[in-house]
DNA sequence: GTCTATAACCTGATAGAC
DNA sequence: GTCTATCAGGTTATAGAC
């Protein structure tokens, strides 16, 4: 019960601003986002944003860290679950991660590009070490000592995430609409484990 | 000989600005780039930028289209080369595309994120249709009528491009340095065709 | 806590001298 | 073609009333 007692009827002003910030930042990126956009989307006044979060940058860092934590929090527990076999981990990651991406389609691109523009701002605070020293990595090294485990993990993540990264390009080009994209993604949930297993066995 | 006759001793002012713009836009993105940054990087005055290119947006569109054209120009000719088998195309694409990416490491992330933020600005001018109706797609449909060819093409591109997309994250996190990254990429040039063949055969 | 008004600053673009 | 100086507009952040 560490939370402050508060009426739970509606979103607090603070939460309304955060929700709006998530939306606008993710859509337009840090630099192109104006604090006025966030205030308007939140239905509050510009001054309140600074009252609650001090500055645009502070608010961005908060949103960024929350988003990144949820992104990594989705897969790292699976990678470190010692009760799962290598094949089970691959299946679990592609399933859970895809489910997460369907609800946050623009997130990977957002995080990657913001990190790329301003590297050691956030990255050092992320639990990436946990992924690189995970049980999944150890299982890979045992199974295929001839391959670099990080390279293999990039394959799994790449197959899962990449469709969401080129989605804007392919959709604008008319390659598919929202419905067809969902169908492809649903197919891939079953296919990615098969593909990964085929890679695991390939010599 | 359509080019204008001109002294070829040094870069023209126009080219110096374009070179600087490529650098700064690719690194910081459109919104975070200030025309002053470009002018400074080019070693010229701010006013000259507008003299040659009228506006920041016009200059950006120019750079963007050139970059995108080179990106797509690298793979589309291979995809449409009717003398190559499916396996040969896969090998060629991963080789040529990787070589291109090694010289333009930040390019995919840049293009994807700028497109994502401002969709139908550039995408319609890109030769994406050429890739989607390519000979490569037809070969895939013949070989594996049970799979969606675009989904399969995303696998090839994802395996090739994704390491460059997460490179900033993994490098900042200390997963590897520039040299180790190059080693991984070199390995993958030989591995990606094997992995893709394994996927092609997997049932 | 929430608002309006405004300060302080930054950025793209141009005018005009050379 | 190239420069300096400056304008016009927009943006973050704060002061101060309620």
CATH architecture tag of the largest domain in chain A? Orthogonal Bundle
As for the number of domains of chain A, it is 2
CATH topology type of the largest domain in chain A: Tetracycline Repressor, domain 2
| End-to-end separation of chain A | 55 Å
Largest interface in this structure: A-B, 58 and 58 residues
> How much β-strand is present in the residues of chain A?
under 5%
In round numbers, the mean pLDDT of chain A is 92
Shape of chain A from CA axes? globular
Provide the succession of SSEs of chain A: HHHHHHHHHH
Rg over C-alpha atoms of chain A, rounded to the nearest angstrom: 20 Å
Helix percentage range of chain A: over 70%
Uncertain spans of chain A: 1-8
CATH class assignment of the largest domain in chain A: Mainly Alpha
Structural class determined from secondary elements of chain A: mainly alpha
The protein's oligomeric status is homodimer
Provide an overview of this structure.
2 copies of one chain form a homodimer. Chain A is mainly α. The first copy, chain A, has 2 domains: 1-54, Homeodomain-like (Arc Repressor Mutant, subunit A), CATH 1.10.10; 63-201, Tetracycline Repressor, domain 2. Helices cover 74% and strands 0% of the residues of chain A. In chain A, helix 1 (13-32) packs across helix 4, helix 4 (56-79) packs antiparallel against helix 5 (86-103) and helix 9 (149-172) packs antiparallel against helix 10. The termini of chain A are far apart. Chains A and B meet through helix 1, helix 6, helix 7, helix 9 and helix 10 of A and helix 1, helix 6, helix 7, helix 9 and helix 10 of B. The structure holds a DNA duplex (18 and 18 nucleotides).
């Amino acid at each position: 019960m560490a939370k402050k007692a508060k009426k739970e009827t509606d979103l607090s002003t603070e939460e309304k601003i955060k929700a709006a910030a998530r939306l606008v930042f993710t859509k337009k990126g840090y630099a192109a986002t104006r604090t006025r956009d966030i205030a308007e989307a939140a239905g509050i006044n510009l001054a309140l944003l600074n009252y609650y979060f001090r500055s645009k940058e502070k608010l961005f860092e908060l949103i960024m860290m929350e988003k990144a934590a949820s992104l990594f929090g989705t897969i790292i527990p699976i990678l470190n679950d010692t009760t799962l076999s290598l094949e089970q981990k691959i299946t679990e990651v592609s399933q859970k991660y895809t489910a997460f991406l369907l609800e946050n389609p623009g997130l990977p691109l957002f995080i990657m590009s913001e990190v790329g523009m301003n590297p050691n701002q956030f990255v050092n605070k992320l639990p990436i070490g946990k992924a690189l020293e995970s049980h999944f990595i150890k299982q890979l090294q045992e199974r295929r000592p001839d391959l670099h485990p990080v390279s293999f993990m990039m394959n799994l993540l790449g197959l899962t995430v990449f469709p969401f990264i080129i989605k804007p390009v392919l959709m604008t080009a008319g390659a598919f609409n929202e419905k067809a994209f969902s169908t492809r993604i649903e197919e891939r949930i079953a296919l990615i484990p098969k593909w990964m297993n085929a890679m695991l066995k390939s010599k």
